[in-house]
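Database export, one record per block. Field names are fixed; values are copied verbatim from the stored entry.
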Amino acid sequence: MIDPVAPLDGAPDPRGPSDLAIGAFTPRAPWIVVPESMPWRLGGAGEPDVIVLRRQAAELARTLVNPSHLPSVGRVLSVVFRIGVPLVAWGAKERGTPESRAGLSRRLRPAFEHLGPTYIKLGQIISSGEGIFPEELVSEFRLLRDRVPPEPFAVVRRTIEEDLGRPIAEVFTSIDRTPIASASIAQVHAATLRSGERVVVKVQRRRVAPLVRLDIAAMAWLAPFLVGRIPVAALTNPPALVELFAETIVEELDFRLEAQNMLDIAAVFVGTGQRTVVVPRPHPELVTRRVLVMEHLHGFPWSDADGMRAAGIDTAAVLRSSLIAFLEGALLYGVFHGDLHGGNMMVQSDGTVALLDFGITARLDERKRQAFLRLQMGASTNNVTVQVEALRDLGALPADSDIEAVIRDLNLDRPPIDPTTLTADEMMAELRDVTKALLAYGARLPKELMLFVKNMLFLNGAMAAMAPDVDILGEIMAVVSYFTEHHGERIAREVGFEVTSDTIDLDGYRAAMGFTEETDAITFRDLQERRELIAKRLEAHERPRRRVPLLRALYRVIRPTKD
């Protein structure tokens, strides 16, 4: 079995498929990937290539959120009615009460269901943003993940035949009428090609593309009216959230771009020498705007940690390798899967992780990639100045921000305070004060940073099942040692200082998680106990106010995920 903490040197088995030299694919190749000969990548016959398609998608997203772009009056009225009614009911009954956020979340979720695929997709993105969006909203919107009824198979057949330009029987000997999965944008069916390979077929819903365009324009027009009126995370205010959503969902509507994302991320894993994470091969020819045929992979559901352990799989090592692969892609190549969650990952019998669904893939320009790298290295060494400078370069703060003033005004140079000593009033007061200061600086949560943090929070949460008793401090050092050994010279060159085991501030990690310097080991169970204690503290109202900077609170959440 592959050791997920020690990826291979990137050289494929000479006896294996030749495309392992260009992508992290499985050794059981149903076909060989040759990118330069794939017609769906190259365009032709009046069709642009994937580079032009990606540029066009970005331009369309900007157009749809432009204030001068007038939305459909009918759709705006429909959205206003569906969302306005629950908002009015919430304002009359729950606003200003302890049940405010929970009540709003319960009322918004059915409204999103009634508004259809676009809003369901938005709700699903929110549901995987634990730690970014309010907990009540995340919990309620998780119910949207399994509530998208599939389209009738006759409709699916029609889409496949239109896009592939031939009867379905000429392509497949069989295709399951019942989908494996049914989501807001598409549904997935298992099938067998005429050549005998088992595949999965992702088919876009017929009405989703025009409806998404209508909905984004309506969202962009309505979002400014919601600022300050609903309790969402301040730095993901409604207009910014709509802009982020438009950038992701418009690209998702063209499966040729998703297939190219698969090739790009597979190539990144090869570039870093990773062989512990694999990507399904897109079909060389059977890819169109609305249909994506790909290799059919099998494995344990991400949630089945007990089943993995029973099969002899080291779940802690699986989690570690997933984190390393994700960080390498983001920090060294500027490309990473933007929507990690349990439905998009499975673990194969040999312990390798199979990634699925590449519709949301983050791409960083060189400036942002290096900013991400500095942010992580600054966090590892507890260098606040480097962290704030990196956040500025990522676009979270304006380019002309006075770094020293930001650190001073947000008290980022003070030692972190144990959150278990704070009451609900203290925490909420501090959150309001620091949020106000951040917004005064023009702070926001850029798309790439939000996707990065969301993925880190997901991997952090996965520790509960996959590595509850592993020492987090030891894991941090293992990951640092890996990056030092494999990428140390490059990292030192790009961040301007060397990061080694000796420069890692473990005391800072301990303090950020609320533990003293005397604590030798910290497990996820320990963290869970502290979080439960914090939840109880939130119900108390005895202690005076003390300051706990918001960015340090963010790192309390992020830092444990570096294991």
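Remark 1: The radius of gyration is 24 Å.
Remark 2: The first strand starts at residue 172 and ends at 175.
End of record.
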